[in-house]
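Quick one, probably user error.
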């Protein structure tokens, strides 16, 4: 185990329980999926992303232009 990982794990002991659970899930994901495609998304979220990608490829979902995105953010006051 690297020194950096050991130090992080010592700090994790002081984190709130929910944050520790998030870290546990992230490490289990890395352990179970050694492939480059690692994610912290749930299986349901991954399915939704894949569904949107299929819709975009099929032309059923259209992406906003840069101009439209800027206008949207402006309408939110950002």
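Nope, works fine. Designed sequence:
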């Amino acid at each position: 185990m690297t020194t950096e990982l050991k130090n992080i794990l010592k700090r994790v002991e002081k984190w709130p329980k929910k944050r520790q659970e998030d870290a546990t899930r992230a490490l289990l994901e890395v352990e179970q999926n050694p492939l480059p495609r690692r994610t912290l998304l749930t299986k349901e979220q991954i399915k939704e992303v894949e569904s949107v990608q299929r819709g975009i490829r099929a032309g059923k979902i259209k992406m906003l232009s840069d101009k439209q995105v800027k206008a949207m953010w402006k309408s939110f006051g950002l």
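The chain has a mean pLDDT of 90.
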